[in-house]
Design goal:
Layout lengths: L2 H12 L8 E4 L2 H8 L13 E4 L4 H11 L7 E4 L4 E4 L24 E9 H10 L5 E8 L18 E7 L3
Parallel strand pairs: 1-2, 2-3, 4-5, 5-6, 6-7
Helix pairs in contact: 1-2
Length: about 170
């Protein structure tokens, strides 16, 4: 979509309905600049739950993530076409670590994945199915959960060459 077309769409459709939008896909750098500048605009997307980013440079991600924290309903960020991902997050309640949902039928081209936080074992199991091109994996805290359905089929891990797991309460 050309810049002028998106600008018209933004002024006439997105802004008047920003309080109603629950899913948004941005596929060009100029769309990110328009939606996130000034930064207070994104805070008005109070029902935004999902943000899908295509062709976005890494330098924009910090700015985007910084503003997404303010959205009360936001829970899903989709980053397409990245090969390296370093994920760090903090939970409010360490005793109640919630699962991270990786959609089993949505595959990612990520080859190097680092999680610098605690992750439940069931989330880890699902993660492996979503990353068929995974070569390197590092997880800072793999935590046991009460019920875990483990799939022992590892034929899909043919590219995996390096694994570093810090185990936390795993028997």
């Amino acid at each position: 979509m050309p810049n002028s077309t998106f600008h018209h769409y933004h002024i006439n459709i997105i802004l008047p309905n920003q309080h109603r939008i629950n899913s948004l896909r941005l596929s060009n750098l100029f769309t990110v600049d328009i939606i996130f500048s000034p930064s207070r605009i994104i805070s008005k997307f109070i029902y935004l739950e999902t943000l899908i980013l295509d062709n976005i440079k890494a330098q924009y991600l910090y700015k985007i993530l910084h503003h997404l924290i303010l959205l009360p309903k936001f829970h899903s960020l989709v980053l397409n076409l990245i090969e390296y991902c370093n994920l760090t997050y903090q939970t409010k309640d360490e005793q109640r670590l919630l699962p991270i949902i990786f959609h089993k039928y949505q595959y990612s081209p990520i080859e190097h994945f680092v999680i610098n936080s605690r992750i439940r074992f069931d989330s880890f199991n699902n993660l492996l199915f979503c990353l068929p091109q995974l070569c390197r994996l590092s997880i800072d805290g793999l935590v046991k959960c009460t019920f875990t359905n483990i799939n022992s089929n590892t034929n899909f891990l043919e590219h995996l060459k390096y694994v570093s797991l810090k185990l936390d309460y795993i028997n």
